[in-house]
Amino acid sequence: MVDTGAQHSVLNKKLGPMSKKTSLVQGATGTKRYCWTTERKVNLGTHQVSHSFLVIPECPAPLLGRDLLTKVNAQIHFDPGGMSVTDGLGQPIHVLSLALRDEYRLFVPKPSETIALDVQPWVHKYPLAWAETAGMGLAKQRHPVVIELKAEAVPVRVKQYPMSQEARRGITPHIRRLMDAGILRRCQSPWNTPLLPVKKPGGTDYRPVQDLREVNKRVSDIHPTVPNPYTLLSSLLPEYTWYTVLDLKDAFFSLPLAAQSQEIFAFEWTEGEGQPVVQLTWTRLPQGFKNSPTLFNEALSEDLCEYRACHPEVILLQYVDDLMLAGTTEEACSRATGDLLQTLGILGYRASAKKAQIARQEVTYLGYKIRQGQRWLTQAMKETILQIPEPKTPRQVREFLGTVGYCRLWIMGFTEKARPLYEGSKETPNWTWTEPMKKAFQTLRQALLEAPALALPNPNKPFQLFVDEKQGIGKGVLTQQWGPWKRPVAYLSKRLDPVAAGWPPCLRIIAATALLVRDADKLTYGQQLSVYTPHAIEGVLKQPPGKWISNARLTHYQALLLDAPRVRFQTPCFLNPATLLPNPEKDRPLHDCNEILAEALAARKDLTDVPLSNSELVWFTHGSSYVKDGQKKAGAAIVDDSGQTIWAETLPPNTSAQKAELIALIQALEQAKGKRVTIYTDSRYAFSTAHIQGPIYQERGFRTAEGKEVKNLPEIRRLLEAVQLPRAIAIVHVPGHQKGEDLKARGNRAADAAAREAASRDYAAPILAVGLPPPGMGTLPPVPDYSLPDLAWINKDATLQKDDQDRWYRDQNNNLILPATLGRHLSCEACQLMRAEKKQHSGMRYRGGGARATLGDRFH
User: Is residue 590 part of a domain?
Assistant: First the structure.
C-alpha cells in the first residue's frame, strides 16, 4: 500500500464480501459513492487487527490511510543518523522510499508475465541476450570495481532490523538464488548494514533491499555522468520513427566487485529460528549503493562504443540500464536491433524479454510516449501528479513542485502559473493554504491533462525562440519550422533573481532572454537561434546602461546573447506565442528602450551632478560619526558658500556615518524648497543614493539582491521625497579633506568642522511642551507615579530637579516631566487636536515604549 496522506485506507479490488456501508468520495472527475468491505483481519507484521477498507476500483494503487496508520501506531523519528519509522513498541516498520522522478513507476501498468508474441522470435534467435534464457549476466570486458573510502571512514555496524517470519520466508528463495549464482558469499567483516524485506506490489512475494545509507556516507563521491533526461531525447532526429527499447535486467549485478571492496557491503542473515546467523556480502556491484548508476552507465557506454561506430545509420540512447535504438526504416531498426542483442549477449549483459519493445513506431521510454518524432507524457506520469492531494505543509508544496516540474516542458508559462506555490513553499510560522495557492495547484493539474504533443528537436534545422517577460517571470516558446508552420519543441519559463526583477521592463527582458536562451541551448545543440522579443535588446546590450547592470553580469549577457551569427534578434511582426498578443508592425516600435532607461534611472528628470549656473543657494553638507570614551557620537551640518552654518544638529548615539550624511542631505533639500540650489557632498553613499541607488531601490521595492530590506530605509524614502522639493537641483560630489583654497575645498572643510562640533555636544532628546491640557486629559494625580525606566531616564539629565513638596520633576523652565503612561496619552490627544496621522511625532522622545512630555505650570 502507498502512503499518500489519505484519511482512509483504500483497496482497488473487491477482495471478499462487501458491507452495506457507503461513502461519497470527491475526486478529480467529480463525486461518486463507493462501498466498504466487511471487517477483515489485517496482519501488521507485529500483530493483527480488524479493519474495513474503502474500495475504489479507479484508484491506481492501494492507499495506506491515516486510519490504518493509527492502528499500527506508526511513529517517525528524525535522528542525526537519519530517519526511522517504528511502531508503538519501538520496533522498525519497513518503508519503501522513492525519489520523485521515479514515483511514476508506481502507476506503470504491470508488465505481462509472458513474453509478447512479436518478441518471442528474437528470444529464440538471440538466447544469450535475454535474462529469461541465459540467466544472470556478467560483463566480460570489465575489471572488478574498487570502491574508494573517505580518508576518515571507519567501519560501521548497524544491527539487523527485526523481520517477520512471513517476510523472511519471502526473501529466502532470493538469497539462495543469489548465493547459488555466486553473487552473494559468506564472510566475516567489521562492516554490517541491515537488510529490508520489501513486498512486491500486487502479490505476496518479497525482495531483499539493503539499507546502505551509512555506507554511502563513508564512500568517496564521484562526479555523476548519468545523462539528463531533460536533454537526452534532444539528439533523437524526427525522421527516425522506428524504435526499439530494451531494459537490462539486474544490470548492476553484471559488474564484478573487487575482493578488497566486498566486505563493506556485508549484512547478517539467518533462514529462521534455530538456524545459524552468518554474514553475507556481495561479489557484484550492489543496488542501493550511491555510485552504482554512474559506474554502470560509464561501463556500458564504453562497451558499446564499437557498436555505435559500426552502426552510424541508427541512434542509440542510453540512460543507465535503459536503451533506446532508433532507425529511419523498420528494416534498418530490425537489423540494428539484432546486432545490438548479439553484442549485449557477447559482452555479458542481459535484457528483459518481458519488457522489450522491438521495431515499433510507438514506444514508452523514461516515462515518455514517443511516436513519429513527437513525445507525450504517459498516463502513468499524469496519474502520479493527479494522485497528489492538496498540500497541507510547505514541504508538501515543494514535493508537488518537484513532481510537476519534471513535466514543465509541456506546460506553457509554468513558472508564472506556479508562482503562488513557490511563494508558499517557504517555511513561515503561520503558514496557511491560501486561495491563490489552491488555484495554482488546480491550474497546473489541469494544464497537465491538456499537455500537448511536443516535436522532438531536429539539430539539423534552425530554431526560433519567442520571449516575453511579465512581473519578474520570463516565458518563452521554442519552435522549429515544419512546412509553413512553426511547431513547438518546448515551453520554457524562468523566474528572475531579485536584482533583475527590480529593473525596468527594458532590462528585465534582457535577463529573461538570457535565462531562456541558456535553457534552449540544452535542446538546440549549437544550431542557429532566432530570438523574437518585443524590445530592442540588442541595441541596449551594445550601449548598456552601466549604472543598472554590473560589469560581471553585463559581460555574461553580452557573451551569451551577442553571439552572431548563431543568435539573431528579430522583431516579431506576427502573433508572439509567448504573450499570445499581437505585436505592432516592424517599422513602428512601441517605445525607445534607451529613452525609457534614461528616465527610469534618475530620482527626478532635471537632477544633475554639475553645479547650476544661476543657483540661489550653494550649500555644503556633511555627516560625522566617531567614537569618544567608548560612546559613538554623531552629528550633521549644512554650511553656505561663505562658511556660515545654516543648520547643525547632534544626532542620537550609534548613528552611522552613512545615515548622518543622508540626514544632512535631506535637511538641505527640505530647507531649499522652491529654490534653485547646488548642494556639495563628499559622501559617495549619499551621492549615489540620490543619483543611482535610490531610484533602483524604489523600482525593486527597497529590497537588496538577497531580497532583504535595504539599510536606512526611512531616510532613503525621505530623500526621494525631498529631492522633488527644490525648483532646480544639482547634487555634486566633492573630494573630502582637501587642503586647497578654492570654494569646494573651503566649503567642505567648513561643513566637516560644523558636523564634528555638533557631534561633540551631548545629545538631548527633543521635549514636547504643551501649554493647555487637551480635552479628555483630566486632572493630574496629586503624586506622580514614575516607573523605574522613567527614573533612569530622569537621572541622566542633571537639569531636571524634583520638587520636595509635590514630588514632581521639572526642567529649567519649570515645566513638568510626565511619567511614560501620561506622556503616551498626551501624545495621542495632542495628535488628535492637530489632526495628525498616527505616527511618531518629531517632537517626542521615546524610550522603553513611553513618551516624556512637559506641561506648563498653569496646566495644574
Answer: no
The reply to whether 285 and 169 lie within a common domain is: yes
Nearest to 40 by CA among 62, 65, 80, 11: 11
Cβ burial, residue 61 (10 Å; 0-12/13-18/19+): middle
Same domain? For 647 and 781 the reply is no
- In this prediction, residue 852 carries a pLDDT of 41
Q: What is the rounded CA–CA span in Å between residue 303 and residue 212?
A: 28
Q: Residue 793 in contact with residue 832, Cβ under 8 Å? A: no
Co-location of 731 and 780 in the same domain: no
567 within 8 A of 529, measured Cβ to Cβ: yes
The mean pLDDT value for 604-620 works out to 86
The reported pLDDT for the residue numbered 97 is 55
Q: Which three cell numbers stand for residue 17?
A: 464480501
Distances, alpha carbon 325 to alpha carbons 119, 231, 293, 517, 859, in Å: 15, 16, 20, 29, 97
Q: Are residues 749 and 776 in the same domain?
A: no
The order of strands in the sheet holding 362-365 is 362-365, 368-371, 374-377, 454-455
**Does residue 628 lie in a domain region?**
yes
Q: Which of 3, 67, 87, 640 is catalytic?
A: 3
Claim to verify: residue 354 and residue 228 sit in the same structural domain: yes
pLDDT digits (tens, 9 = 90+) for 466-505: 888 887 888 888 888 766 677 788 888 888 887 777 777 7
Q: Which of 74, 93, 112 is the last residue of a domain?
A: 93
Query: Which whole-number Å values give the CA distances from 130 to 120, 137, 673, 766, in the listed order?
Result: 11, 9, 89, 91
Active site residue 857: no
CA distances from 849 to 192, 818, 821, 837 (A): 62, 14, 9, 18
* 399: its cell numbers: 514535493
Q: Say if residue 468 is in the same domain as residue 578.
A: yes
Report the number of distinct structural domains present in the chain: 6
Q: CA-CA distance, 785 to 819, in Å (whole number)? A: 7
Residue range of the domain that includes 443: 388-449
- Residue 56 reports pLDDT greater than 70: yes
Domain at 751, CATH number: 3.30.420.10
pLDDT of residue 853: 45
What was the pLDDT predicted at 494?
A: 83
Q: What percent of the chain has pLDDT over 90?
A: 22
pLDDT at 483: 66
Q: Is the pTM of this model over 0.85?
A: no
Which of 449, 476, 497 is a domain's end point? 449
Residue 248 sits in the same domain as residue 281? yes
User: What was the pLDDT predicted at 357?
Assistant: 92
Q: How confident is the model at residue 596 (pLDDT cuts 50, 70, 90)?
A: very low
Task: Identify which has the larger pLDDT, 715 or 113.
Answer: 715
334 lies in the same domain as 185: yes
